[in-house]
Q: What sequence folds into this?
C-alpha cells in the first residue's frame, strides 16, 4: 500500500500548491495602500510564505484566519483586481478548515466559482483540485482500484478543461506510476500522445518501458554475478532510500528462509551513509549502491518509476511482477507456488 499512500501525499501537496500558486498574483496599479496592505497580509499567510527573520522556518497554516482575512478583503475592497482571487483563497481555506468535509454552502460557491470563466484560470484550476481531492479523502468506501480509476478520470478532466496547465498531466503520470502495469501503461501512452511537457513524457515513457519488463530476463548492469547466484530461487529486487525507511520493514516481512533471495538497490547519493543505514535498518540481501537516484545505472535498467519499488523474479530469472510494492505477499506467493518459478 506504499504507492497509494504516496499518491495520497501527492494529493495533499497538490492542494497546498493550489494556494501557493495564488501568491503569483500581483496588486494592480491604482489600488489604494489599505487594499495593498490587506492583500499582502493574505499572501503572507499562505502556505510556504515566510517573511523577515522567520523566513525558511516551518509553520502551520491557520486556515480559519486565512478564510476570515480573505472574506474581509472581498467585503472591504470589492472593486480590487484581487477580489476574485481572494474568494478562491477563502473557499480553499474553508475546505481545509472543514478537514475535507465540504459543506453544501461551500460546495455551491466553489462550483459556481469554477464554472465562471471570468475568474483566473489558475484560481479555478487550483480550487477545482482542492475540491476533488477533498472528496477523494472522504471516499473511504472505495477500493484501491476504484480510487485510482476515479483519480485517472479527474486527471483527464483537468487535461481537457485546462490543456495548457501542467497539473492534469502530472497527476495522470502519478496515477500511472501507482497503477498495475497494464493500466499504468495505458495511461502513460495517453500522455505520450498528449500535449504534456517533455519531462512528463519522459516519465510516461519510463512507465511504458517498466511494463515491458514483465516476462523478460532480469538484467542488472553491475550486479550480474548476484543475479546469477540467485538462479533456482525466487528473487526480490527492491529499491529504497533514506527518505522512506519504513519500506525496509515491508521488504523484511517477505523473508521466506532459503526460498527467497533479495537484492536491494539504494538510490541515495551518499553511498557511505547509505551503507551505514542499510546495516542499521537490517536491509535484507545483497546491497547495490547505485548513487544516481532514479537516473542511476541500475535504476535505468529497471525503469524505476518510484523510489521504493519491488520486483519479483522467478526461479529461472524471469521478471514476473514490477508492481510488487502493491500486495507484495500475494505477488510473491504466486511466484513461489508456480511450477518451476513460472507464473
A:
Amino acid at each position: 500500500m506504499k504507492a497509494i499512500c504516496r499518491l495520497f501525499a501527492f494529493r495533499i501537496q497538490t492542494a497546498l500548491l493550489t494556494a501557493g500558486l495564488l501568491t503569483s498574483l500581483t496588486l494592480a496599479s491604482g489600488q489604494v495602500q489599505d487594499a495593498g496592505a490587506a492583500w499582502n497580509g493574505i499572501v503572507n499567510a499562505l502556505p510556504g510564505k515566510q517573511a523577515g527573520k522567520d523566513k525558511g522556518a516551518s509553520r502551520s497554516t491557520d486556515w480559519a484566519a486565512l478564510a476570515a482575512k480573505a472574506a474581509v478583503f472581498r467585503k472591504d475592497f470589492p472593486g480590487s483586481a484581487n477580489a476574485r482571487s481572494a474568494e478562491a483563497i477563502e473557499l480553499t481555506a474553508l475546505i481545509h478548515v472543514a478537514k475535507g468535509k465540504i459543506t453544501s454552502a461551500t460546495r455551491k460557491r466553489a462550483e459556481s466559482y469554477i464554472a465562471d470563466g471570468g475568474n483566473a484560470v489558475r484560481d479555478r484550476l487550483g480550487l477545482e483540485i482542492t475540491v476533488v481531492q477533498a472528496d477523494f479523502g472522504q471516499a473511504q468506501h472505495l477500493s484501491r482500484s476504484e480510487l485510482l480509476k476515479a483519480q485517472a478520470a479527474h486527471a483527464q478532466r483537468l487535461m481537457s478543461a485546462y490543456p495548457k496547465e501542467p497539473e492534469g498531466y502530472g497527476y495522470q503520470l502519478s496515477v500511472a506510476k501507482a497503477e498495475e502495469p497494464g493500466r499504468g501503461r495505458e495511461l502513460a501512452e495517453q500522455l505520450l500522445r498528449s500535449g504534456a511537457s517533455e519531462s512528463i513524457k519522459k516519465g510516461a515513457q519510463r512507465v511504458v518501458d517498466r511494463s515491458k519488463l514483465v516476462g523478460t530476463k532480469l538484467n542488472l548492469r553491475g550486479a550480474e554475478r548476484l543475479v546469477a547466484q540467485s538462479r533456482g530461487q525466487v528473487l526480490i529486487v527492491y529499491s529504497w532510500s533514506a527518505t522512506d525507511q519504513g519500506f525496509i520493514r515491508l521488504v523484511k516481512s517477505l523473508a521466506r528462509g532459503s526460498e527467497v533471495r533479495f537484492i536491494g538497490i539504494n538510490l541515495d547519493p551518499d553511498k557511505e551513509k547509505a551503507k551505514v543505514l542499510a546495516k542499521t535498518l537490517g536491509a535484507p540481501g545483497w546491497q547495490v549502491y547505485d548513487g544516481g537516484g532514479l537516473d542511476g545505472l541500475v535504476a535505468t535498467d529497471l525503469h524505476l518509476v518510484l523510489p521504493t519499488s519491488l520486483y519479483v523474479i522467478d526461479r529461472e530469472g524471469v521478471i514476473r511482477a514490477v508492481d510488487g510494492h502493491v500486495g507484495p505477499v500475494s505477488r510473491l506467493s504466486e511466484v513461489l507456488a508456480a511450477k518451476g518459478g513460472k507464473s
About this structure: Residues 2-207 form one domain.
